[in-house]
TrEMBL record:
Lineage: Eukaryota, Metazoa, Cnidaria, Anthozoa, Hexacorallia
Superkingdom assignment: Eukaryota
Gene3D superfamilies referenced in this protein's UniProt entry, alphabetically: Diphthamide synthesis DPH1/DPH2 domain 1
InterPro entries: DPH1/DPH2, DPH1/DPH2_1
Protein's UniProt name: 2-(3-amino-3-carboxypropyl)histidine synthase subunit 2-like
Gene designation: LOC116293504
One record GO biological process: protein histidyl modification to diphthamide
Molecular function in Gene Ontology: 2-(3-amino-3-carboxypropyl)histidine synthase activity
NCBIfam families found in the cross-reference section: diphth2_R
Length: 103
């Protein structure tokens, strides 16, 4: 029984080592980051920057019904415009992931 307890404790230790980004959730919730984001000012630029035609082609070719998009924080201001363009040009439902990403 003592050996099993020791093995269990060792396994827990190994698991916690494998989770280097795990910490107190409160730290994450309370963390503040400053990110600047500027909305793309023209439809043509938006289509070019985000390769809308190519993306529409891929979505349509594979008959995707649901597509999730993730943007770096600095580009989030364009996310709703990109999603809207893609929805209008495909039969897919486009979702913007609400979690933050690096970039």
């Amino acid at each position: 029984m003592a050996d099993e307890s020791k093995k269990l404790e060792e396994a827990k230790g190994e698991i916690s080592k494998a989770l280097p980004f795990s910490n107190n959730d409160k730290d994450i919730i309370d963390r503040h980051i400053n990110v600047s984001s500027v909305k793309t000012d023209s439809l043509d630029k938006l289509k070019d920057i985000y390769e809308i035609e190519k993306t529409v082609e891929i979505i349509s070719k594979h008959n995707y019904e649901n597509v999730a998009l993730q943007f770096p924080d600095s580009l989030l201001s364009d996310s709703s415009s990109v999603a809207s363009l893609l929805e209008k040009q495909t039969n897919a439902r486009i979702y913007v992931l609400a979690d933050t990403s690096y970039g």
